[in-house]
Amino acid sequence: TLTGFGKPLEPHAPSVQDILDIFKALAERYSPKHVLWRFDPIILSNKIPAEEITAKFESLARQLRGYTERCYTSFVDFYHKTERNLHSLADQGFRFYDPATEEKIALIRQLVEIGNTYAIRVYACCESDLLTVPGVTQAHCVDAALIAELFPDKFRELKKTPTREGCGCFASRDIGAYDTCIYGCCYCYANASHQKALTNYKRHDTANPAL
Length: 211
What we know:
Blueprint: H1 16-29, E1 37-42, E2 44-45, H2 50-64, E3 70-75, H3 80-87, E4 96-97, H4 101-117, E5 121-124, E6 136-138, H5 144-150, H6 194-203
Parallel strand pairs: 1-3, 3-5, 5-6
Antiparallel strand pairs: 2-4
Helix pairs in contact: 2-4
């Protein structure tokens, strides 16, 4: 995931340059097909208008040219804990909103055009309305066709097992856990609180095969 939003939305995330360095190193070790970019979620507010989103996307796509072929994206879902976390930025003047479908489509059209410039295809995650935009592909966090292409000797047939409306994922095993990421992104739905994540992080035993 690389959005470039920075503080205060992503208060403890690594710098953009650090993530770019890691991204490029992985692509060079394996291939650009192996490393998928998530520009996700797109979150709009009075302080982050659509023009800023497209500017960030263009800057990152330019730097990732030749290091990936795919960008997965979606608009933020305002779950209760997400709204609670975002509300903490109200005293800094942030007012977040869920854009109308027409505004989403207009923004995604621009991302597709930018992506085409840098040979990066845009994939929509759980955003069925965006699939009407030419050049947008249904996202699969677990993509059976890509897995078969990259690991033909290990591939086995997978059934589609969507997790929610608009999801295109195939069967998988989730190796993560909620409340374990310490980056504290305000739009995150995987953490109930930054403090709880820190507590779990400190309990983590690197010698243990499970979190």
